[in-house]
Design goal:
The chain is α+β, with helices and mostly antiparallel strands. It has one domain: Serine Protease, Human Cytomegalovirus Protease, Chain A, CATH 3.20.16. β1 and β2 form a beta hairpin. The longest helix has 20 residues. The two termini are 16 Å apart. Keywords: Hydrolase, Protease, Viral release from host cell.
Length: 187
Amino acid sequence: MNETHTPLGLEHKFVALGTTETVEGGLRIEGYASYFGEADRGGDVVLRGAYAVSLAALAAKGGQVKMLWQHDPAQPIGVWDEVREDARGLRVKGRILADVARGREAAALIAAGAIDGLSIGYRTVKATKDDKGQRLLTELELWEVSLVTFPMLPSARVGAKGESPDAADLRELARVIDDARHLLARD
C-alpha cells in the first residue's frame, strides 16, 4: 500500500503522471493527480468536489499547490501552473524546472520512463466509510503534488505528448508492476 501518514496528519496518495513536453528551461508535464470514484490500493475513494474548498482557499490567498520530489518539502522541483477538478479527477499541468538540479534529474528520469507517478499530499477534512469498508474522502486540504516512483492508482500511466494509451494495457502493466513490488517487499 502506498499511503503514508505523518505526525502532522499529512497523507499521500499516488497516481501516474500524464503527458510531458520539453519547454524552454524545463519539461512541461500534465496528468491526473487523483481520480474520482476509483478505489486506490489503500481502499480510499476520492469523491468529486473533494478538492473544491481547498483550491478556492488557496486561490483566495494567492497560494499554490507545491510541486515536490518524492514528497520531500526540501526538494521543490517545479511549479504547477494549473490544478483543477474536472469530471474525471484532479487535473494538473506544470513545469519541472531545469535550473534546479533535482528538476534536471526528474526530467531525465521521466524521459527514460523510470518515473511516471504523481502523488498528492493532503489532510483529510471530511470522510465516511461505505459498506465495503472503503474510506470515502469528501473534503481534502491539498498541500502538494509530487513526482514519485510508485503511484497509488496504477491504472493511470504517463503517455508521450499526443499518445492515447489503451486503458486495458495500462491496467495490466500496473498490475505487473504492483505484483513485482509486492514480491520485492517480501525479500
